[in-house]
Amino acid sequence: MAESVRFEVPVTAEEVRAFARAVGEDNPVLYDDLAARHSGLPGIVAPPTFTMTQVKAMPPGERERALGIEVDYGRILHGEQEFVYRRLPVAGETLSAEMRVVKDETKQGRRGGTMRVITFETVFTDAGGDEVLTAYATMIETGKDPGA
Amino acid sequence: MSEPRMVTLAEVHPGQELGEVVFGPLTRDDIKRYADASGDHNPIHQDEDYARATGAPTVFAMGMLPAGYLAHALSDWFGGPQHLRRYKVRFTTRVWPGDELACTGRIESVDGNVVRVSLAAARRGPGPEGLSLPAEELAIAGEAEIEVPEGGPVPFAGTPADVVERRIGGDDAARR
Fold first, then answer.
1. What confidence score (pLDDT) does residue B79 get?
2. Would you say B25 and B165 are in contact if contact means Cβ atoms under 8 Å apart?
3. A49 CB near a chain B CB, below 8 Å?
4. B5-27+60-175 maps to CATH 3.50.50.60
């Protein structure tokens, strides 16, 4: 079983703008290079949840195969999501991502079934090897109905 | 939107409410636009037949869409997304087409120039036919840390009476 899986997440201005539009953003630092520089940023920055686009490079299914775990996507819910930022990604850079499973626990559910909690950690670093942000996606795999 | 009121860090104190930002009503186009932008093409969010086969009455938003709106509201309260140091959300119920999403926040603590806030996003609306949902319920509980510029003013939206209506729809997006 692989300890972690590595992939790249390109941050293009086009994708940043499309993502910003999709969450209704109108802040010019997400759209306009000059506006971003006026705000002291090196260029257009990505919205805080932009790295969700990591599924383009590492889709559900593929990530489990790479990490050697099995998940039933018919019974999965997104429970929690957390981001810890050093800075926001900047349009034009390519982030290196390293993903691993940091939690995989099965608990007794309230109705007698089981509930599995899986947390995927993805650390995003820049071309200089410095951390940009870390994302934690916690998925809940609900138990098969014990009565079924 | 009302212009952010500029305050100094000394004026920020625990218990302060950040206002309310309302997004929506959510449309299937909004869901498709987010799917295309994010790469989340799980059919449960776009394919009616697929959603029904799982027992849902219709399609519903991927959690990260309302979580994206909530991050947008939070960014606006603090003068831009670049000041965020941590953002965490917990999903408590599904958000359906037709729902509005009301985002609120509250200052929990101030430590140096790091402000910690609690966040909530409530879905409002009748919900899809076939479900008896409350007219309003918590969809996301969140928390965040913002590092405000040293010595600089803190823009924030002000009073709980401030309501910002934004319709996030195809027409709005097309205008940009």
1. 84
2. no
3. yes
4. no
Residues A16, A36 contacting (CB under 8 angstroms) = no
Domains identified in chain A and CATH numbers: 5-11+55-142 (3.10.129.10)
| In chain A, residues 67-126 whose CB comes closer than 8 Å to chain B | 74, 77-85, 87-88
Please tell me which residue of chain B has the smallest CA distance to A52. B38
Residues 6+ apart with CB under 8 A from B127: B96, B98, B99, B133
Tokens 């200089």 -> residue: A128
Q: At which residue do the structure tokens 């958000």 appear?
A: B95
8 Å CB contact of B91 and A78: yes
**With a CB-CB cutoff of 8 Å, which residues 72-91 of chain B face chain A?**
72, 74-76, 80-82, 84-91
Write the pLDDT tens digit of every residue in A50-86: 999 999 999 988 999 999 999 988 788 999 999 999 9
Residues of A in contact with B39 (CB under 8 A): 52-53, 55-56, 59
Q: Do the Cβ atoms of B146 and B78 come closer than 8 Å?
A: yes
Phi/psi at A15 (5° precision): -70, -35
Q: Which residues are within 8 A (CB) of B137 and not within 5 positions of it... i.e. 6 or more apart?
A: B92, B93, B122, B123
Does the predicted interface ipTM exceed a cut of 0.85?
yes
